[in-house]
Amino acid sequence: MALTETYMSIASDLERHMLDLINAERAALGLQALRLEQHLNASAEIHSDWMLDSDIFSHSGRVLPGDSDASSATDRMRAAGFDFSGSWRSGENLAVQSARGAEGYFDDVEDLHVSLMNSPGHRANILRPEYEVIGIGIELGEFTYSSGATLLSVMATQNFAATDGVLLLDDGTPPDPEPQPDRPQDLMGSRGGDMLTGGSADDTLNGWYGHDTIDGGAGADKMIGGPGGDLFHVDDLGDLVLESRKWGGTDTVISSVDFRMGRQHIENLFLTGEAVLGAGNGLRNEIRGNDQDNILDGGPNIDTLIGGAGNDTYLVRTPGDTVIEGPGRGGADTVKAFFSYALPAHVERLYLQTVLTKAGDPLTINGIGNGLDNLIIGNPYDNLIAGREGRDTLRGQAGADTFVFDRAPGRDNVDRIIDFNTNEANEGDLLKMKGALFGGLAAGLLEADLFVAGTRAQDGDDRFIFDRASGQLWFDGDGAGGDAQLLVATFEQNAQVTASDIEIF
Is the pTM of this model over 0.85? Predict the structure, then answer.
């Protein structure tokens, strides 16, 4: 194949640790230290990646990412851009072992070095006096061994060389080369707080220890936090964030696309850009929306859900969940509740969800409004619904529903009941009025002589007046006296209300 590009890489901390071990062995024998060379680093890293991806442990492999041709170690070094000119020589060592995890990666590298030094052929490469430069590629990933076991593993490739040609040494500082084609990067953090940023390819970034900031950049990236409180930037639906409960710290994802925490040990999620959906996990999550019409779902623990502008929908699944909507953000916001729920400030709509016990019986779920003009929708079973202040729209749906009036009647507190039904099977809806607000009436079912059908009170005993033609229910504090009637509620669907449908409490 004809090559038109070269590949370069700056060694990671793990790779530099392996170099230190190699040079300590050489120094003990009075040999010159090997220096890292960027083209050799790239060829070694590409080969380690390929072995992990292919589940193959071999000195033969593809020349460059995307190629399928078998190659030798020298082929790969030359393909990466290493200058084999004049008198030259090359060699390669390979090693792999299962990983101990983030806290043991440096120990893993030391174990690999010991195993190579205990192998005569590999030891000869490490201590060969003629070699001048080296490239080291240490990659982490799953590898399937000959036993059939698939384990998280540390894969190492060492590319040795000497040449009369031009060298591009790795002094730890990225050079300013000619533009190179993007290829996947594997970035490893340190024991402190790091800032890791990927490129436009599908990168793997591992923060390791410390409070790290990890941004994969464009592409579907794998971002691994490690111990400590980490911050992840997600901008692709294919991005994968990995956090373990063993690692500790409070971890946060800032996502410009829809994001579900899944089984990862992430605590906080902040949506930005065009993201709509934010879903939590089994931890205590804080999820913040943006200016879109968000869907925020905390999951099965006590969560805090914070909306922004737009018509937001909150799924609250656990008693203790907190929904926060600020004033003046506009929109009509909705809570879908899986338990009895009272709407918080600045949220307009409440939908009660159906929840069944393990025996298949429905849980009783009730809904309470706030000072806004609410819409409250029950589920197909028995619900208690209280609109509280405001001109609320209430719908119980199927089941024997109870509509509660526990705020003083008035022109700005008239509720609209859509489906009041007392006749059909499994119905039997009821109106409950707080006696202290309705003339001090005695508790219990309303006495028949305190109710009249029509448009106004007929005598001094009439307190509740129902006009079936208009669907309006009125309260009159003194019957046929001089006080004006107050409209309590309006009913739709040709509802019929009688004294036995009203209970005083």
Answer: no
| Encoded tokens for 24 | 């300590």
Q: How many CB atoms lie within 10 A of CB 328?
A: 6
Tell me the domain boundaries of the chain: 13-162
pLDDT (tens, 9 = 90+) of the chain, 505 residues, equals: 223 345 788 888 889 999 999 999 999 999 999 999 999 999 999 999 899 988 999 998 876 655 556 689 999 999 889 999 999 999 999 999 998 755 568 889 999 999 999 999 999 999 999 999 999 999 988 899 999 998 889 999 999 999 999 999 987 755 444 445 566 777 877 777 889 999 999 999 998 888 999 999 999 999 999 889 999 999 999 999 999 888 889 999 999 999 999 989 999 999 999 999 999 999 999 999 999 999 999 999 999 999 999 999 999 999 999 999 988 766 799 999 999 999 999 999 999 999 998 899 999 999 999 999 999 999 999 999 999 999 999 999 999 999 999 999 999 999 999 999 887 766 899 999 999 999 999 999 999 999 999 999 999 899 999 999 999 999 999 987 778 899 999 999 789 999 999 999 9
- Measured CA to CA in angstroms, residue 36 lies from 29, 111, 133, 382 at distances of 20, 21, 6, 74
Q: For the stretch 206-221, what's the b/e string if a residue is b when 16 or more beta carbons lie within 10 angstroms of its beta carbon?
A: bbbbbbbbbbbbebeb
Q: Which residue type occupies 52?
A: L
Long-range pairs of 215-224 with CB within 8 A, sequence gap ≥ 24: 219/184, 224/102
In CATH, which superfamily holds the domain spanning 13-162?
CAP (3.40.33.10)
334-337 and 277-279 beta bridge pairing: unpaired
The vertex-203 CA angle with 201 and 204, nearest 5°, equals: 175
